[in-house]
Specification:
The chain contains 4 helices and 56 strands. By secondary structure, it is mainly beta. The strands form 14 sheets. Strands 49, 50, 51, 52 and 53 form a 5-stranded antiparallel beta sheet that branches. Strands 1-28-27-26 form a 4-stranded antiparallel beta sheet, with no helix packed on it. A hairpin with a 3-residue loop joins strand 38 and strand 39. The longest helix has 12 residues. The chain is globular. It starts with a strand and ends in a 7-residue tail after the last helix.
């Protein structure tokens, strides 16, 4: 996934914010702050001049900006009940107000004040029928949506800080001020003390920064997936499968945490707060993103003095961050499981009622869909006429399966491998899978007959090779597949791979590139980059490599240029000075080594030999670039209703030279058009 800041809204009079919450149904954003500040905002996407511009790329304006009067103290807790269109807020004096929507504006519906203590947390259960309110002095009140009290309880001698419902509404988790967490049933009877594993060997007091239990509304990443996250202000976090899990995922974020939150599918946990900057004394505001298995995905740095709160938008394509007296918005580009082969978009999504992934093969030419249900799907990779589905074997062997499919999802061949295919790339003849330490190549057999050229080269179709990243293969051997050597550790792990017919390039965390000759898999060179690559692509002549690094900076590397380095030594390969920031997708033209397309924030740029054309507003993922035309797919829009993909969510964009040639032919005449085409030659133009 990639994330970048996109918008900033200032709160009047520099009033500092304390909390923010985003309604998951109607899109309202509530923010509370000092001096009784309470606002409800709504960002609406407007249709600009071009109706094709959708999603994050479409312009957005504030369609609602209402100040709600009623609180005198700092508003500390805001929570939505989207099922019943209600907003519940509380301030530093313990005053609770329930607001309702009437004729497009928010009005006070109910008020409550115990006049004894301050409300520390309020949560509605999953169906919006009940609210649980916890006070610092140990009082707990559970009320119904119509304002009636269901039960109340005083937890003697305990100071409360947070509350969370279990997804089925049968349990309540209470976090104490001292960091302890206790479980009660939904009628207020004590059940057990929750085991905290993430604070082992921690000295000093630790306070709970957040408890979030994903309710499974949009399905789970996989069966028995960790979904209950508990995070402390000192940055320690544990993610449990259930409240009784004795082997939770443990994370040390290295942050001062203020807020945590799951995205809408429970696939990404956002941890917001601050951390010490390496070079400075001051703290830097950051949001760290993790998978449910504790794997770090991204870090977003946010300007300002202090971050107070964060909230996901309904589709999880944006996150709102309360910093000082501003709300910052960041756009998220998810790593969808998808690919494109022979006019077919292949994409996967989860359904709440099924543990398998639903994989759709959408033939965009014939408007037909083929559906497969795949267990433990890890990734989708496609090239030419085929795609590869990588899955975890459905047994206790710990193996992984690479399944070669055609464009309607028919399995043609498969291989069991023992290394986890963290990175996969594909050419028209090979599938290459890599773990952090080793890589495996599979020259697959296709249904088409081998051409005479292939026979002349005596290529052994179906052959497999396996090497450790620290090996120095010469091209001979490697056919004996011994997975034991693949588990030896390395000082410099693999972080990305890309391949062409004659070349395989493997990027390593240090910035080293291992370059192999294909198909024999012989290590021919090592190049040094001054960045850590995250995504790479070779042009059609395998002469220039495009690299997106871990922070979204795009650079180019000429693999065969000879240059003299700082020590006066001649080296092969030159890292060009060119760079672009906030890049999240890219594709070379299949038929021109100089043409390159990329996505930067919400704009698509096309480069001809490093010179950009006018950008096109879009948030599409690039499928293919050939014949001076780019095919892109609006996966964000498709995922809103993935069972029924719509032709409107496919984009076909012509590059400038094709548009200009057509304009010249239409408006000026054939002679000028001929001169222009001679200056910009391409078979499509002639």
């Amino acid at each position: 996934m990639f994330i970048y800041l996109s918008k900033k809204i200032a709160i009047p009079n520099n009033t500092r914010l304390r909390c923010v919450s985003w309604n998951q149904d109607q899109g309202y954003i509530a923010c509370g702050g000092e001096d009784g500040l309470l606002k409800v905002l709504k960002l609406e996407t407007t249709t600009g001049k071009d109706a094709k511009v959708k999603g994050l790329a479409a312009p957005s304006n504030l369609s609602m900006n209402q100040t709600l009067e009623g609180h005198s103290g700092a508003v500390q807790v805001v929570t939505w009940n989207q099922h019943y269109q209600k907003l519940t807020t509380s301030d530093q004096y313990g005053l609770i107000i329930v607001w309702m929507l009437y004729k497009g504006s928010w009005y006070e519906e109910m008020i409550n004040n115990r006049n004894k203590s301050v409300v520390r947390s309020m949560k509605w259960n999953a169906d919006g029928q009940k609210i649980c309110i916890v006070y610092e002095d140990g009082a707990v009140i559970v009320g119904s949506v119509d304002g009636n009290r269901i039960w109340g309880k005083e937890l003697k001698g305990l100071q409360l800080a947070h509350v969370e419902w279990s997804p089925d509404g049968k349990l309540l988790l209470f976090a104490m001020l001292n960091g302890e967490i206790q479980t009660y049933d939904n009628t207020g009877n004590f059940v057990s003390k929750l085991q905290i594993y993430c604070l082992t060997n921690v000295t000093g007091a630790a306070h709970v920064a957040g408890i979030e239990w994903y309710n499974g509304e949009y399905g789970y990443v996989e069966a028995n997936c960790p979904c209950l996250s508990i995070c402390y202000d000192n940055g320690r976090c544990q993610i449990m499968r259930t409240d009784l899990d004795d082997n939770p995922i443990l994370i040390d974020t290295g942050m001062q945490v203020v807020k945590i939150g799951w995205n809408n599918s429970g696939a990404v946990l956002a941890v917001a707060g601050s951390q010490k900057a390496a070079s400075q004394d001051k703290d830097v505001n950051v949001v760290q993103f993790y998978t449910p298995f504790g794997e770090h995905l991204r870090t977003l740095k946010v300007p300002g003095k202090q971050m107070y709160s964060s909230a996901w938008e309904a589709g999880s394509l944006r996150i709102a961050l309360a910093v000082d007296s501003f709300i910052y918005f960041a756009n998220i580009r998810p790593d969808y499981k998808w690919g494109y082969c022979s006019n077919t978009v292949v994409y996967a999504f989860t359904k709440p009622d099924r543990t398998e992934n639903c994989v759709v093969f959408w033939d965009t030419k014939n408007k037909e869909r083929y559906i497969k249900y795949v267990k433990n799907l890890l990734s989708v990779t496609a090239c030419g006429d085929f795609c590869c589905l990588a899955t975890k074997a459905d047994d206790s062997s710990g193996q992984f399966v690479l399944v070669l499919c055609n464009s309607i999802g028919t399995p043609l061949d498969s291989k069991y491998i023992e290394i986890e295919p963290v990175y996969i790339t594909m050419t028209k003849t090979h599938i290459i899978a890599a773990s952090k330490e080793a890589f495996y190549t599979w020259q697959f057999k296709t249904v088409q007959k081998l051409t005479t050229m292939d026979l002349a080269g005596k290529r052994k179709a179906g052959s497999e090779k396996l090497y450790h990243i620290d090996d120095v293969p010469s091209g001979a051997g490697g056919d004996v597949i011994d997975f034991n050597k693949a588990f030896a550790s390395t000082q410099d792990p693999i972080c990305c791979i890309c391949a062409a017919d004659r070349m395989l390039i493997i990027g390593r965390e240090s910035g080293t590139l291992n370059r192999y000759q294909m198909p024999i898999v012989a290590l021919s060179n090592k190049h040094i980059l001054n960045c850590r690559p995250h995504q790479m692509a070779l042009n059609c002549k395998s002469a220039r490599l495009a690299i997106i690094d871990i922070s979204g900076v795009l650079t180019f590397f000429d693999v065969d240029t000879r240059v003299t380095d700082a020590n006066g030594q001649e080296v092969l390969g030159e890292h060009l000075k060119f760079e672009r920031k906030d890049v999240w997708d890219m594709k070379w033209a299949e038929d021109n080594p100089e043409l390159f397309s990329m996505m930067e924030k919400t704009r698509m740029y096309i480069f001809r030999n490093l010179d950009p054309e006018e950008p096109i507003l879009s948030s599409g993922y690039i499928c293919r670039f050939n014949d001076l035309e780019i095919k892109a797919v609006l996966l964000d829009e498709i995922m809103k209703d993935p069972d029924f993909p719509n032709k409107e969510n496919l984009l076909e964009l012509e590059i400038k030279s094709l548009r200009d040639s057509r304009d010249l032919l239409d408006k000026v005449g054939i002679e000028d058009a001929q001169q222009f085409i001679e200056d910009n030659p391409h078979p499509r133009l002639w």
